[in-house]
Amino acid sequence: MNSLGIFLTIAVFYLFSKIYEKKRAFYLNPVMLSIIAIAFILHLTGISYETYMESAKIISFFLGPAVVSLAIPLYKQRGIIKEYSKEIFAGIVFGGTLAILSAFYVAKIFGGSESVLLSIAPKSITTAIAIGVSEKIGGIPPLTAVLVILTGILGNAIGVEMLDAFKIKDRVARGLAMGVTSHGLGTARIILVDELSGAVSGLAMALNGVFTSLILPYLLKLLQ
Amino acid sequence: MMLMYKGLGIIFGFLFIGELLSEAFNLPIPGNVIGMILLTFALLFNVVELKDVEKEAEFFIKNMSVMFIPPGVGVITYWGLIKSQAVPIFGALVISFALTLILTAKFVELLRGGEK
Fold first, then answer.
1. Are A21 and A103 members of one domain?
2. How far is B58 from chain A (nearest CA, A)?
3. Contact state of B108 with A154 under an 8 Å Cβ cutoff
4. How many domains in chain A?
5. Domain end position, chosen among A61, A83, A100
């Protein structure tokens, strides 16, 4: 039953994607629901994670070429990078660093263990890159994956409302903060509110992925 | 359909080079990120043409969500850790989210000095 993992992943994701197509609510996020459903199915049937992963790992293998492919939207939006270069670069250095430090220190204050601190540090970057970064720095990639998705869901659910509550009206500032904080899921929400914010958010997400993967290993050496 | 292999060859080529560099120099940056940076520069300097990789790249990006599921399911093997560390994990998640979102937005807004 080697193909079990692939079949289960695709079938469950297809089902939840269909539901999400009908009702685009943040709590119906198909990735999160698929993870919960598959975990539940494995638990009920007694099938081990290793058996599931035998073929499911083929699906996640494609995260490699998918990350490389992010070069294409980055290249296509080079015009926006040029136009807002100052705010984009300053914002990413500020926001990217803040995302790492705040996650790391808050977890530490609350008594987080070493592996939890390392797993939560890259939580604000896009899942594909975060998994690789987590692995490189000695975190737990599956925990990072789930935390990244939850951070994205938070941004998708209440990010726009929070920016409104704090009276932030600047469209570039709103997009940048959303992309740096809540990557793809945040971008998907703010692009519905404003196109410029959405474009800046998408760029900030990609660039923050690069920035965080470059700086995080060195930042951690300083912190520990 | 033959064209597909050119795009896939370029994408996997850059992935391979990125992984090679990451391992050879023992870099802390994942190989796929290095591949992405190199491909961006290759496009900027016209070493690679956009039309040669665009369709294949879009296919990977559009289907990225499903790729997170298997590593995500792996979290069940850490159930004990998550239960015992629930406060630091979820406390840090929510507080860091709110701080980063609002302070970054305020920072960029100040930087732009009230432009809209």
1. no
2. 7
3. no
4. 2
5. A61
- State the ipTM, two decimals: 0.92
- Smallest CA–CA distance, residue A25 to chain B, in Å, is 16
pTM of the prediction?
A: 0.89
The domain of A32 spans 4-61
Q: In terms of domains, do A141 and A45 share one?
A: no
CA distance A80 to chain B (A): 14
pLDDT at B28: 83
The answer to whether the Cβ–Cβ distance between B30 and A172 falls below 8 Å is no
**B20: which chain A residues are within 8 Å (Cβ-Cβ)?**
none
| Residue pair A181/B101 in contact by the 8 Å Cβ criterion | yes
Segments of chain A scoring below 50 in pLDDT? none
Interface of B with A in 8-67 (CB under 8 A): 8, 11-12, 14-15, 18-19, 28-33, 35-37, 39-40, 43-44, 50, 53-54, 56-58, 60-61, 63-67
Partners of A153 on chain B (C-beta within 8 Å) are none
d(C-alpha A56, C-alpha B10), whole Å: 25
- Tell me, yes or no, whether A73 and A56 share the same domain: no
Are A148 and A73 in a shared domain? yes
Q: What is the pLDDT of residues A38-60, one digit of tens each?
A: 999 999 999 999 999 999 999 99
Contacts of residues A195-198 at CB distance under 8 Å and 24 or more positions apart, as own/partner, are A196/A171, A196/A172, A197/A171, A197/A172
Which residue of chain A has the CA closest to B68? A60
Domain final residue pick, A16, A34, A61 = A61
Which one of A50, A67, A153 makes the best mutation probe of the B interface by having the most chain B beta carbons within 10 Å?
A: A67
